Amino acid sequence: MGTHQGAVSHKHLGYYLDEFTFRFNRRRSKSRGKLFFRLAQQAVAVAPASYDEIVQQIGRVAPKAKPQAVGPT
User: pTM to 2 decimals?
Assistant: First the structure.
């Protein structure tokens, strides 16, 4: 599929699998360029954010909730 470039280190395995999944899920897409087009539209439509604004937002992210048990326990 054009993603594998030789050996995959453990450090980069997650990124490799994300890329492979992305490409695999879109392998038969009729509108491959639409993703880039939508990204460009969003970049133009939204005001730019400064580094400080992004860092402040990351600090305010609520912690993830613990998963609940499913079925009889």
Answer: 0.39
